[in-house]
Amino acid sequence: MGSSCCPDSVVTSEMKRNLLYSMSVSKFHQLIKKIESVHGGICKDIEDSYLSPEACNIWFTKEIDRKLPFQEKHVLQQGSILGNLEKIGALKRCNKNVECCESNLDNKDENVSAVVEFGAGRGYLTQMLADCYGVKKVYLVERKSYKLKADRSLRQKENLVLERMRIDIEDLNLNAVESLHGVPYVAVGKHLCGPATDLSLRCCFSRQDDESPVLRGLAIATCCHHLCQWKSYINKEYIISLGMSKDEFHTMTWFTSWAVDDDHGSKIPGVDDIDLQASDSTKEEEQVKGVEDDSLRSVDEVVKKMKPMERAVLGFKCKQIIDTGRMWWVKKHGLDSKLVKYIPASVSPENTLLIAGKSTPSSA
């Protein structure tokens, strides 16, 4: 599997683009067919799971601290992320007018008392989680400094422990966080661009011992797959098993930018309704015939002839192939995991959620 770059180097966007446009037309056709075949075989079970949990009603009805920034789009996203965690049993609802989950924390085998939010930004996902599900320990992992954070509001909550860790996820060792020793927690992330998803998963499943935090569930909204890197990707064995090389992986990450860019992504009429798991075979045959026009002498010409819709669908398929590898890796490490579309594409085309928890009847 020859590669044009050093094994441990970062592959830039320009390098990825060059990998694509330096291909022969025949090799480009072969890669497209491989992607179509792989996607058709493994990406069939990504269900819609748009949830608005009752536990989050105080946010949906704007009964929250009016000093907090409120954007309906983000509230819908955050609510559905938490609703999916509740659906698989990783979060428990609080009783109205009762100090949330106080009595539940005695049973650490079943209930979660802490949240670790990776790529936390201002921390409003965790703010909603604390408001609606009553976790008692909050850990916000973010390397950047932000103004207008949720921290002030969180610190006003009684009996809540808040730690903001300004650190690269790659350098974080949760086993070294003393206040998390032996504590059941959920991991969440809504702003984990590209390789940050892989680094967060690796962090959650690092060496385990008796004092390690106890991962009960995770929900990560994946995004920005065009930034993914072979050196960071969590499941290289999976990509290799698909018959794909490192260069082909990086080319796939370039294709993913076609799914959501301004020219041919969310703005295309009908994109929201496309079934990416079961493309119509006739349309695929027509597409292949068009792409394989013998008069086209370069990949650049082939790409320019592709319809914006075709490029967008190809990009989404590559995203789902990359995320399926992550989902299988989590399964291999002991959690029941799946991919869902957690919000409509009309809210955001970046609408895939990797959700995982212990096997329970409610996760079926």
From TrEMBL:
Per UniProt, the keywords (alphabetical) are: Metal-binding, Methyltransferase, S-adenosyl-L-methionine, Transferase, tRNA processing, Zinc, Zinc-finger
State which Enzyme Commission number(s) the record gives.
2.1.1.225
- Molecular-function annotations in GO: tRNA 2'-O-methyltransferase activity; zinc ion binding
Q: Please name the Pfam families in this protein's record.
A: TRM13 (PF05206)
UniProt GO BP = tRNA methylation
Q: Which domain of life is it from?
A: Eukaryota
Gene3D superfamilies linked: Vaccinia Virus protein VP39
Q: According to its UniProt record, which reaction does this protein catalyse?
A: cytidine(4) in tRNA(Pro) + S-adenosyl-L-methionine = 2'-O-methylcytidine(4) in tRNA(Pro) + S-adenosyl-L-homocysteine + H(+); cytidine(4) in tRNA(Gly)(GCC) + S-adenosyl-L-methionine = 2'-O-methylcytidine(4) in tRNA(Gly)(GCC) + S-adenosyl-L-homocysteine + H(+); adenosine(4) in tRNA(His) + S-adenosyl-L-methionine = 2'-O-methyladenosine(4) in tRNA(His) + S-adenosyl-L-homocysteine + H(+)
User: Domain Methyltransferase TRM13: where?
Assistant: 77-356
**Family the entry assigns:** Belongs to the methyltransferase TRM13 family.
The free-text function statement in the UniProt record for this protein reads: tRNA methylase which 2'-O-methylates cytidine(4) in tRNA(Pro) and tRNA(Gly)(GCC), and adenosine(4) in tRNA(His).
* Designated name of the protein: tRNA:m(4)X modification enzyme TRM13
